[in-house]
Amino acid sequence: MYSFTLFKKGLTVVVVFFTFFFFSNLVFSQTSGRWVVGDFHQHTTFSDGSYSIMYMMQKNAQYGLDWWANSEHGGGFSRNGFLSGYDLFNNLDANGKIVSTVTYWDTYSSGAVIGNGADAKNPKMWRWQSIRDFSYKAIQLARLMYPTKLILQSYEWNVPGHEHCSMGLLDGQFEKNDNCNALAEFEYRFDAGDRDTIGGESQGWTGKNFKNDHAKAVQAIVWLKEKYPNTSYTIIAHPERKQPGKGGYTIADLRDFHTAGPNIAFGFESVPGHQKDITRGGYSNTSVGGGTYGGSGIYSAKVGGLWDAMLTEGRHYWLFSSSDSHDTTVATGGDFFPGEYQKTYTYVSNPKNAQSILDGLRSGNSWVVTGDLIDSLYFSIENTPMGGTANVNGKTVTVKIAFRDPDKNNHNVWSDYKNPSVDHLDLIAGKIDKIIPSTDPRYNVDTVATTKVIARFDAVGGIKDANGLVSQKWTDKGNGIKEMTMTVELTSNMYFRLRGTNLKLNTPNETDGAGNPLSDTLVGGYATNTSAKTFADLWFYSNPIFVKSAAFTSIYEGSKKENNEKYILYPNPSNQEITIQNDVNTFAKYIIYDINGNNVAEGIVDSKNKTIRISDLANGAYLIGFVDEEGLHSQYFIKQ
């Protein structure tokens, strides 16, 4: 696998335009970190998967993952994941069909189950207990079996009032007396499927709220922010999917979660698992968008859609992908194994350290790919990588891109199309505007008109699309490496992201004249997806890079005095300090409030003192109020 070392500011342009020799040897000369590939959403017979946990561990390693997380559903389940699964014995029914081996908890050990329902026939063990006492023991064993891999115990949260979420909490897992107690407590307290009233109480986890609503979901993220601000994550699973009796996710929901804990609720799996399913992605026709688009949900596939609306606010909200692997045995559907079809690449400082993996995910320096269309991606603006913010002085920036299209077969065994090639790459750009207050009607709007494809690169150049955009020719460096560079004129503070595909413009039922993916239901109709179709329709997406320029008087919250704002804050977001810009040299008192309305800081600003340090504040959204002779003025800002 090839990898790209991130370049630090100050290196020369010659280095950034890396030669083939340097580029191809990065994998052997990484000093500050490297790219790793992982999957954090998968299932075994500890919940509703079809294979035992150790078999799934084997498959993660087989398909080349560097790290993974076991992440079963919350709630209650009756099977022992060690001793149940299709893989344990070749049991056949009268029709010759493989029958899964099932071992119930009371078969394994009488009295093993704690909490409500423990005395029932084949009782369901609450997930908090199976995580803590059984599943985590399997993870500990797997770490010994695969010492070169990083393996986490996580779980799939049944979010109160909503659908699912890939959730993880590192505390206790890699300590001297390692345990999974913190994650187990979270499941007991906040999983919508966990109705246990006595087992958790016996552990000292008192005060459980049994409501099943959005407010409880927000409360859960606030709880994590207060107790485990750096070691927990909540990444929304298949965000466009809807199931009967479960609310889906709207942009208002995602904004609420991100505002409550931007360091915790920082992304979604809008390139969902279940890509082998007859309804690709497991998305029914009642999902948002009516299905997937090139394997992605409409939230990320649509230029100017929900994801772009989040990014336009300047929110650090990232795109991920995982297999959501349950069952690969279904002849006309099922799932791919982890790493078999889709991958998330993340740049980390230490691939052997769990916190480094989480920090890498949180940084936004990640990209996703299906069908191993590419195996390396480099994307920078003024030496700033994905997830970062390039702070510049002028109105132009240089964008540098490179990827590697490997000349080798992927894991497709369903057709002869095994070695796909990238047809083109799109550079997408949007304006960075202000954070939208929850009281604003736009808070519920999941589209934005200021995001568009601004450049396209391909092997030949000169191809005009339906919008009049003419492609540029990339530089072929050999060995599958393609390089691109361009100067972009800034029209405001902006963000930039990438997408690429093996499909040409105007591919029937696959792409439109502007290269956008069409609904996957067009390829043969609804519920007709096959593995061969999935491997014929491949994409990759980068996370964004933000650019903020001193040339614009408004930084993120708006430099123009919109709505007669007297006090303007910049930079925003910031992690160290914010500067106050106003046209009058007045004396004012300021008070900073967190999202719960608590006074967390206060002070004075005047003509000589216009800088406010915020480095001691926790990451999140804040309201700052200024009181002067004219009254009260307020603004929002983000500490990150």
Word description of this protein:
This protein has a domain at 564-639: Immunoglobulin-like (Sandwich), CATH 2.60.40. 16% of the residues lie in helices and 26% in strands. The chain has twelve helices and 31 strands. The protein has a 16-stranded mixed beta sheet that branches. β30 and β31 form a beta hairpin. α7 runs parallel beside α8. The longest helix is centred in the N-terminal third of the chain and has 19 residues, at 127-145. The protein is globular.
Give descriptors for this structure.
alpha+beta; 16% helix; disordered N terminus; 640 residues; 26% strand; 16-stranded mixed sheet; 31 strands; single chain; four-stranded antiparallel sheet; Immunoglobulin-like
Return residue spans where pLDDT drops below 50 for at least 5 consecutive residues: 1-31, 554-564
Number of helices: 12
Nearest-angstrom radius of gyration? 25 Å
Describe the global form.
globular
Roughly what fraction of the amino acids lie in strands?
25-35%
Query: Largest beta sheet, briefly?
Result: 16 strands, mixed
CATH topology of the domain at 564-639: Immunoglobulin-like
Q: Could you name the CATH class of the domain at 564-639?
A: Mainly Beta
Distance between the termini: 32 Å
User: Can you give the mean pLDDT?
Assistant: 88
Assign the structural class, choosing from mainly alpha, mainly beta, alpha/beta, alpha+beta, or little secondary structure. alpha+beta
Give the number of DSSP strands. 31
CATH architecture group name of the domain at 564-639: Sandwich
Approximate helicity band:
10-25%
